[in-house]
Each structure stands twice: as structure tokens, then as C-alpha cells.
């Protein structure tokens, strides 16, 4: 299952530097707008200490984490929804990702140009959000024109879609994100399928300098609180420099310098949470593997993440919580002590479940 998060923000906020650190894949990060035009893509493993412990218990030959695809999207500017700064192309790149990592400049450095002259997180966030809102209004209005033709024919599906679009447009024109609407999952998914940008989950990344700028970070946190979005603080430049070192050496330098911010692992884990995913595990001598599924998935749907036959021919899921399995020490002991549970089609998989699927 490919899941992706787009790194979005104004030019020169450190998006490409952050991407380079996350993926260790060099893309241009020079000090001028639109340096990144075509989006760069990198696949990043999701850190999970549970994998190593399960692998050790099972003496697995291979340990396979789940992954997230990060997409480095060029900087948006004021007027992007009208095509300013190649905005239309960049907005189309955002439509292709599942969630947004909104990178906000919180570092003070006169050698790095700011497109609006000075660091102001609140204004910068408003610029990006306004462009996404305006782009959504245009898209929803165009779609509504087409749907109204179907409504005249009395199509039931078109009537329902018209009502949904009108509700979305009312919110958008009031400056509210589509994601803030109280809609059921089916309606929310319908709006996302239309390509509305403000329906995507968002996390904020505060890119700080050598020292944490508490005022700027606090401003980002206040903005994020309006939508209940997660906030991660990181020094992208420091993380890029540390990313090329041996992990043990990087850890030592991080501790020595008392590096501020949550680090790359915090960004990856928060991105995973923002996407609405959880992990379940399979483990054995051959491999221990983490599988990504949307939170709330049933046991058959989780099986489908491994193979479509597991979902189609699902019988039962032999299930145990990760920490409970480690406490027993092995599958054999877990079976003997009655710790393994047999779950049916209606069971909702929990984060950290270890599962063996029984299927026809």
C-alpha cells in the first residue's frame, strides 16, 4: 500500500533540506524560489522499536518496516491559485498526495531570502491556506456546474453530490477547510476523490535554526490548534548534516550539541499518525514485518494488505497484542496459555496486534 505525504510551504522554508535529510536523497536546495519544480519522491521506513524486539523473539532472518513516501513539492507563493509562480502545476502535485506536511520557517538567517521580506509564521501559514482554499473554490465551482446538468435529469447521485458540494463551498467561502466539516467517512472520502486540497490531513513542521525560536513555534502551535493538527519542531539543516553520519555517531553528536527539536523519527511517526494509519505485525523465522492499514480496519481488510486472497477468503485471525506476545516469549507458549485469540470478520485490528490469518 503506497501512502504519501507532500512537503509543502513557501519558498526557502527548508522543504528540500528536510526532504534531503529524511530520504538522504540529494535534490536542489539553493537559496531562490522555484528551485524545485518537478517533485522529488523518496521512500522512508517508519521507525518502530517493536519490530526489532519481535524479530529477536522469532529469530527472524529479515525485518521489514512499513514505509511512507515523502514528496518534495516546490514552494507555493501568493497567487498560486491563479497560476502565479507555476502555482497550478504545484497545486496538482499536492492533489496527488494523501496528506500534507506544512513546513513553516521559524529560523532567522539573513543569508536566506524570505519571499515576503521577514519571518512571520502566522502570515506564511495564512498565505498557503488561502491559496489552497481558493484553488478548492475554483475546483468545486467547476464541478458544481457539471453536476447541476445531471440534477436536471433527476439523477439521484447527482442530487446528493450537489448538496455536498454546496456545503463544501459554503465552508470554503467562509475560509474554513473541507476537513473541518462534520461529515461521515463516505462524504469526506467523496470530497477527497474530487481532489479538494483542504480535505487532506495536515501536520505542521516548524523549521528552526540552531536555537529554538519559542515565539515562532508558539505561533505555529496556535494556528495548528484551530484544526487539531500535530506540530513537530526540527532543525532541517542540522538533521541533514547528521543524516549522512553513522547512526551511533549522529546520536552522540545530537546529545553533545543538545539538538533542539523532535528529529526525523518524530516527523516520520507524526506523518504516519496524520495519515490515519496504524501498524500490525506478522512474525516468524523467515521475517518480521510491519503492515500499514487505516485505523478502524477490520481483520479481513488487514489481511488484504498482505494479499487480496486473505481478505476474499478470510476465515479467522489468530491475534495477540505485541506486548502480550513478548511477555509470553513465543507463539507456542501463547497458545499453551490461551493468550491467542480467534477473531472474526467484525474484529477491528488494533495498533500493535500480531496476527496469523486463516483463510480458504
Brief overview:
The protein is of the alpha/beta class and 360 residues long. Helices cover 43% and strands 20% of the residues.
Poorly predicted spans: 26-37
Helix content: 40-55%
Strand content: 15-25%
- Element-level helix/strand string: EHEHEEHEHHHEHEHHHEEHHEHHEE
Largest sheet: 6 strands, mixed
Total helical elements: 14
Shape: flat
Order of strands across the main sheet: 2-4-1-5-6-7
User: Using only CA atoms, what is the Rg?
Assistant: 23 Å
Describe this structure in words.
- By secondary structure, the protein is α/β, with parallel strands linked by helices.
- Helices cover 43% and strands 20% of the residues.
- It contains 14 helices and 12 strands.
- Strands 2-4-1-5-6-7 form a 6-stranded mixed β-sheet, sandwiched between helices. The chain has a 3-stranded mixed β-sheet with strand order 3-9-8, with helices on both faces. A 3-stranded antiparallel β-sheet has the order 11-10-12.
- It is flat.
- It starts with a strand and ends with a strand.
What descriptors fit this protein?
360 residues; alpha/beta; six-stranded mixed β-sheet; three-stranded mixed β-sheet; 14 helices
Amino acid at each position: 500500500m503506497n501512502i504519501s505525504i507532500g512537503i509543502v510551504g513557501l519558498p526557502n522554508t527548508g522543504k528540500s533540506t528536510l526532504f534531503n535529510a529524511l530520504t538522504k536523497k540529494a535534490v536542489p536546495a539553493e537559496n531562490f524560489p522555484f528551485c524545485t519544480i518537478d517533485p522529488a519522491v523518496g521512500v522512508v521506513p517508519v521507525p518502530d522499536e517493536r519490530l526489532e524486539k519481535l524479530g529477536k523473539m522469532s529469530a527472524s532472518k529479515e525485518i521489514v518496516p512499513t514505509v511512507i513516501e515523502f514528496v518534495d513539492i516546490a514552494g507555493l507563493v501568493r497567487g498560486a491559485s491563479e497560476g502565479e509562480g507555476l502555482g497550478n502545476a504545484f497545486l496538482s502535485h499536492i492533489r496527488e498526495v494523501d496528506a500534507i506536511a506544512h513546513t513553516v520557517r521559524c529560523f532567522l538567517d539573513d543569508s536566506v531570502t524570505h519571499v515576503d521580506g521577514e519571518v512571520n509564521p502566522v502570515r506564511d501559514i495564512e498565505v498557503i491556506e488561502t491559496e489552497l482554499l481558493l484553488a478548492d473554490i475554483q475546483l468545486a465551482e467547476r464541478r458544481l456546474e457539471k453536476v447541476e446538468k445531471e440534477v436536471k435529469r433527476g439523477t439521484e447521485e447527482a442530487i446528493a453530490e450537489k448538496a455536498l458540494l454546496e456545503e463544501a463551498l459554503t465552508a470554503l467561502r467562509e475560509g474554513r477547510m473541507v476537513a473541518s466539516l462534520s461529515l461521515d467517512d463516505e462524504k469526506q472520502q467523496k470530497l477527497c476523490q474530487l481532489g479538494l486540497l483542504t480535505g487532506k490531513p495536515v501536520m505542521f513542521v516548524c523549521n528552526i535554526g540552531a536555537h529554538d525560536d519559542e515565539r515562532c513555534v508558539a505561533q505555529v502551535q496556535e494556528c495548528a490548534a484551530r484544526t487539531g493538527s500535530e506540530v513537530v519542531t526540527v532543525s532541517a539543516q542540522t538533521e541533514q548534516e547528521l543524516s549522512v553520519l553513522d547512526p551511533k555517531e549522529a546520536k552522540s553528536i545530537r546529545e553533545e550539541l543538545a539538538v533542539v527539536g523532535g528529529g526525523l523519527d518524530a516527523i516520520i511517526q507524526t506523518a504516519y499518525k496524520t495519515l490515519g494509519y496504524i501498524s500490525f505485525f506478522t512474525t516468524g523465522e523467515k521475517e518480521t514485518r510491519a503492515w500499514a492499514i487505516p485505523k478502524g480496519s477490520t481483520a479481513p481488510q488487514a489481511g488484504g494488505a498482505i494479499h487480496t486472497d486473505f481478505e476474499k477468503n478470510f476465515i479467522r485471525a489468530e491475534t495477540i497484542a505485541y506486548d502480550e506476545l513478548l511477555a509470553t516469549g513465543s507463539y507456542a507458549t501463547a497458545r499453551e496459555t490461551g493468550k491467542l485469540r480467534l477473531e472474526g470478520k467484525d474484529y477491528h485490528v488494533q495498533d500493535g496486534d500480531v496476527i496469523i490469518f486463516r483463510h480458504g
